[in-house]
Design brief:
The protein is about 30% helix and about 30% strand. The protein is α/β, with parallel strands linked by helices. The chain is globular. Bound molecules: NADPH dihydro-nicotinamide-adenine-dinucleotide phosphate (NDP).
Length: about 325
């Protein structure tokens, strides 16, 4: 038995429920490897797990995404060996210095991607792949609206889409507007503005083809009003709270709109899907030369501070926890 450090919650609540604790680690079991984390990705889903918006079995170690080095392999493992560098996005307990992990969730990091870049981009990049390639592939001439356009997911979604089409971003400050423009937005609007009216104006009065909405409660109505007939309301997050119920008739009256609420788990859980999405992400990084924008770094012990920053809209790009 060895010991690792981890961020644990025993009850749901604010950042103050996060405790830096010692965690016992048994040797890796069948189909598992021992990982020493080198970089941990912070994601808004970690906030939902902490608050209880998404249910968690307590006590729980927070976090879903990290990169690390394989230090030992368990019985029956022949796809990975000691010294391999891997990343994952679908496991709990990522806020830890070391952990055992099932090889079925791990993906090898290409030689030309650093551990920190992998931890910064893997979950967010797979989410962008899901939204742009799987949920509703876009035509070249379609204009899209992206909320939280200086945030983590947006930092890969916008450059990816901007290579082929036109993007309008929504942000909460002028400083974030500059970031969104750098990422590739043709037009940026403040969330305090009349977003739907600005989107209609930008799209020649017609409305946008797709609204990618991660803000949720406070943005859903503006997203619906920004859409062209038969446009897609892709609601994929709840940063401001869950979206209120939307009646089917509202979709009809908006112009036969289509609403979907995708979750990455349903697109990248099966191994073939995970491998396909990862391959697409690494290929995109190679072709575009994109470096994920890392806006801030915190020590693992200071993860509560990182949550405070994310929840109070102070972050831009990705946030890394250093184990
Ligand atoms: P971000 O870095 O995008 O941070 C969230 C951003 O949301 C903030 O920076 C802020 O941008 C905006 N925001 C608007 N209203 C609020 C509010 N009331 N409180 C806090 N933030 C607010 O986070 P991530 O990149 O980690 O995640 C982005 C979104 O994508 C999240 O909603 C997350 O749940 C979702 N997601 C969904 C997945 C899925 O499978 N469905 C997978 C991964 C992520 P601004 O200040 O510019 O408004």
């Amino acid at each position: 038995m060895s010991t690792a450090k981890a961020i644990q919650i025993k009850a749901h609540g604010g950042p103050e429920v996060m405790e830096y604790v010692d965690m016992d680690l048994s040797p890796p079991g069948p189909g598992e490897v021992r990982l020493r984390h080198t970089a941990i990705g912070l994601n808004f889903i970690d906030v939902y797990m902490r608050t209880g918006l998404y249910p968690a079995k307590l006590p729980a170690i927070l976090g879903r995404e990290a990169a690390g080095l394989v230090e030992a392999v368990g019985p029956g493992v022949n796809t990975l060996k000691s010294g391999d560098r891997v990343v994952y996005s679908g496991l709990g307990a990522a806020y830890s210095t070391e952990r055992n992990a099932s090889v079925s969730s791990l993906v090898q990091i290409p030689d030309d991607v650093t551990d920190e870049q992998a931890a910064a981009i893997f979950l967010k990049g797979l989410t962008a792949w899901m939204l742009l390639s799987e949920v509703r592939p876009l035509q070249a001439d379609e204009q899209i609206l992206v909320w939280a356009a200086a945030g983590g997911v947006a930092s890969v979604l916008i450059p990816r889409r901007a290579m082929a089409g036109r993007v309008m971003g929504v942000v909460s400050s002028d400083e974030k507007a500059a970031v969104a423009t750098q990422l590739g937005c043709e037009e940026v609007v403040l969330a305090s503005d009349d977003v739907a009216a600005r989107a209609r104006e930008w799209s020649g009065g017609r409305g946008v083809a797709v609204a990618y909405d991660s803000v949720g409660k406070t943005s859903a109505e503006a997203s619906l009003n920004a859409l062209r007939p038969r446009g897609w309301f892709v609601s994929y997050g709840n940063a401001s709270g869950p979206v209120d119920p939307i009646a089917p008739l509202r979709l009809s009256q908006g112009g036969s709109l289509i609403m979907t609420r995708p979750g990455l788990h349903h697109f990248a859980h099966e191994r073939p899907d995970l491998e396909r999405g990862s391959a697409a992400l690494w290929a995109f990084l190679r072709e575009s030369g994109l470096e994920m924008r890392i806006g801030q770094r915190f020590g693992l012990a200071d993860a509560a501070e990182a949550h405070r920053a994310l929840e109070s809209r102070q972050t831009t790009g990705a946030t890394i926890l250093q184990p």
